[in-house]
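Exercise 3.2. Students should predict the tertiary structure of the chain below and write it as structure tokens, then compare their answer with the key that follows.

Predict this chain's 3D structure.
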Amino acid sequence: MERAASQLKQKKLFLFDIDGTIAMDQKLFDGTKELLEYICSIGGKAIYITNNSTKSREDYIKKFAKWNIKTEQSDFITASYATCLYLDKHHRHDKIYVVGTNSFVKELSSWGFDVTTKLQGRIQVVLVGFDNELTYQKLEDACLLLTDPNIVYLATNPDLCCPTTFGSVPDCGAICTMLSCAVKRMPQFLGKPNPIIADISMKQTGFSKEQTIVVGDRLYTDIAVGINAGVDTAVVFTGEAKKEDCEQTEYAPTWQFDTIRQLLDTICGK
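Answer key:
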């Protein structure tokens, strides 16, 4: 533990997943505020990297404010933000059919993208997000569009489930898996484990890879994004991953902790 504490004390940039890592639904996990205070006290920075595309960065600012945590847009590198950056570079002038929440559609529209939730016009891209407003009509329309091999197929994230207080619910990856049963296609995923999210965070803050750590509850997205970006990682067992999962995974974390509180206590030598 002393060695872990010594190495963790070198970290300045903490890239936190949200759901299942520092919070569950509206409940902030014990130790989170104290850890954020520690990061601030050492001149570090906390960035929140989430694959949850149901909320915009403005939505997250409001959510964190309810926990009395002051944030700004640059504190959140979401899968929807990474998606917007990708679309801006590769599909700026294309018409995009969106399977996603109203908040996600609104965020895409704020970037000036030509988005629609109806079968209208010459659609060139199908984009799927974590949609907790999902309807069967959206699925049927997406299937119709995806029968055309020339239509580009994108999705925000590969997560199969999103943790909740009662267990979990289907996430974007599950929606895409369902669609694949009908259209025999899987999308290009743009959120974690794509290292662009970690790369953006380091570039934005100026911290090095050696000073950076990714903290999350899911091995194939949170831990994988850290590995893909070449930075250390820590898994907490308050969301999807279980201890036994770490024994048989290609995404082995640098450190394992039961909770955020245990991570904080280890850094502080308790």
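Discussion points: The mean pLDDT is 94. The longest helix spans residues 79-90.
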